From TrEMBL:
Keywords: Membrane, Transmembrane, Transmembrane helix. The lineage of its organism: Bacteria, Bacillati, Bacillota, Clostridia, Lachnospirales. It comes from Lachnotalea glycerini. PROSITE patterns: GGDEF (PS50887). NCBIfam families: GGDEF. GO terms for molecular function: diguanylate cyclase activity. The chain crosses the membrane at residues 12-34, 293-319. Gene3D superfamilies: 3.30.70.270. Residues 358-491 form the GGDEF domain. This is Diguanylate cyclase (GGDEF)-like protein.
Length: 492
């Protein structure tokens, strides 16, 4: 590999090494971004499913809340009307039942004796839903089977009180089966299951399970029965602290993503188990969007890098080309378009250094009586002669040799790559003849002649300085001997 090729590859590495390093860094960053994005996608999907669970929970809680607020308003109405008997409250509780989510409304006294909205006399004392410790505050309670319609219900107990003295109660019964119905009708919970637990985590109803849970089983126990590998204590803690929780479980060879959300009514809790395939599909959809974004960013970055590489290479090519022109101009004698003195000497020295055993001839060519041409015909004619000589030398000796103008009318020709004495003699003879021919051409108003001194490398000298001195002495001898001739060094 020569110096030019080495320099080219050095410059190329200076361009592509930082670009390659930048690409590696970008790929590492994108890889880390992909990992972070995948975790973020999981978080987004889990948040989405949690929101769906919370929305269902809020729907149940809102229905109960609206029902209770209506009951509280009617409780105030009963106080204003000074109802003395349960029968007098029938129109009010009938209207309340017709316009609320309660399937049954009861008005009773503090002993539990009262009537339903249909006028049926009842005693709710056996249901143990009236609690004196609650005072005049509204509260909710759960009944597995109420004694009136034998239904499973959530009861909103609304005291009818005046100045904190309870005179009776409005009882609004909300059907637990209505919760299951709302869940089953929602397309968002297709193939999902529902678990509704109340006081101390006791499961009161389920939907979507292949088998009904055992009576009295708690939420942690039920989930542990479904998959013994889950962390039951984690669920128990979430229920007690009224916090959201989530986990994966496998039940009946089906994977589920389970989310539990508190209702913020007592310690009641709603748990929904989604198909893991739904979770994974949502994750795939989310990840596909992120992957498309990463791909787009990668393409954009690569396009930008390749554009910058293209611009850099173009600028570098333009710079090198322009620099070569400047360098060539700096190395060239502008009049003759040959090498100048410095470049000529440098190229010969470099050749000698790199090819110490090669053979070559150094010619020093001097135009005879050039000063006379300038004096008699003007410097313009002198310049014409120099240009003509430079052109002639390029035409005859330019291929693979070193040519230069090293003085006003002094030129150097260094013939490279000679292999034998026969070639040396042939070049000597040809060079002399060529300049004789040039002397006979009608390039100017009078003929010009040339004196030439020659020295052989490495026979006559092993360095440029010595070789030049030897050839210059031969030129001096040619001038002294009458000019218009080529004289070779007489040897060491």
């Amino acid at each position: 590999m020569n110096n030019k090729e080495r320099k080219f590859y050095v410059k190329l590495s200076m361009v592509f090494f930082p670009i390659s390093l930048l690409l590696v860094l970008i790929l590492i960053l994108l890889y880390n971004f992909a990992i972070i994005s995948n975790n973020a996608a999981k978080s987004v999907i889990e948040d989405d499913l949690t929101i769906e669970t919370e929305n269902f929970t809020y729907q149940i809680r809102d229905e109960l809340s609206i029902m209770t607020r209506m009951g509280s308003a009617f409780s105030d109405m009963l106080n204003v009307l000074s109802i003395e008997s349960a029968n007098q409250a029938l129109p009010i509780i009938g209207t309340l039942c017709d316009n609320s989510n309660a399937y049954m409304v009861v008005y009773c006294d503090t002993k539990g004796i009262g009537v339903t909205q249909s006028g049926i006399k009842v005693n709710v004392k056996k249901d143990n839903i009236l609690r004196s410790d609650k005072g005049s505050s509204q509260y909710y309670t759960y009944i597995q089977k109420e004694n009136i319609m034998q239904a499973e219900a959530i009861v909103s107990v609304i005291p009818v009180a005046e100045e904190d003295e309870v005179n009776g109660y409005i009882l609004m019964y909300y059907s637990v089966s209505h919760v299951r119905k709302l869940f089953a009708q929602s397309s968002e919970f297709s193939n999902a299951f529902l678990i509704f637990s109340v006081d101390n985590g006791e499961v009161i109803t389920t939907e979507g399970l292949n088998q009904q849970p055992t009576k009295g089983v708690t939420l942690p126990q039920l989930l542990n029965e479904m998959d013994s590998d889950i962390d039951s204590q984690k669920i128990q803690n979430a229920v007690e602290k009224m916090e959201n929780t989530s986990l994966f479980l496998v039940h009946d060879n089906e994977s589920k993503y389970v989310i539990g959300v508190p209702t913020f009514i007592n310690d009641w809790y709603i748990t929904i188990g989604f198909e893991k395939s739904l979770y994974e599909q949502k994750l795939t959809d989310e990840w596909t969007s992120i992957r498309n974004l990463i791909t787009y960013l990668l393409i954009l970055i690569l396009a930008f890098i390749f554009l910058m590489v293209g611009i850099t290479l173009f600028v570098q090519h333009f710079y090198i080309k322009h620099n070569k022109k400047l360098q060539k101009r700096a190395n060239t004698d502008l009049l003759t378009e040959l090498n100048n003195k410095v470049t000529t000497e440098h190229e010969i020295q470099q050749y000698i250094m790199e090819n110490p055993k090669a053979c070559g001839i150094l010619f020093i060519v001097d135009i005879d009586n050039f000063k006379g041409i300038n004096d008699t015909m003007g410097h313009a004619m002198g310049d014409t002669v120099l240009k003509r000589v430079g052109y002639y030398m390029r035409e005859e000796f330019g291929e693979g040799n070193i040519l230069g103008r090293v003085g006003g009318d002094e030129f150097i020709i260094f013939i490279k790559g000679l292999k034998s004495e026969f070639e040396i003699e042939a070049v000597m003879r040809k060079t002399g003849e060529l300049f004789k021919m040039l002397s006979c051409k009608e390039t100017v108003l009078e003929s010009i002649t040339f004196s030439i001194g020659a020295a052989i490398f490495p026979k006559d000298a092993a360095s440029f300085e010595e070789l030049y001195q030897v050839a210059d002495q031969a030129l001096y001898d040619a001038k002294k001997s009458g000019k218009n001739q080529l004289i070779q060094c007489k040897g060491k």
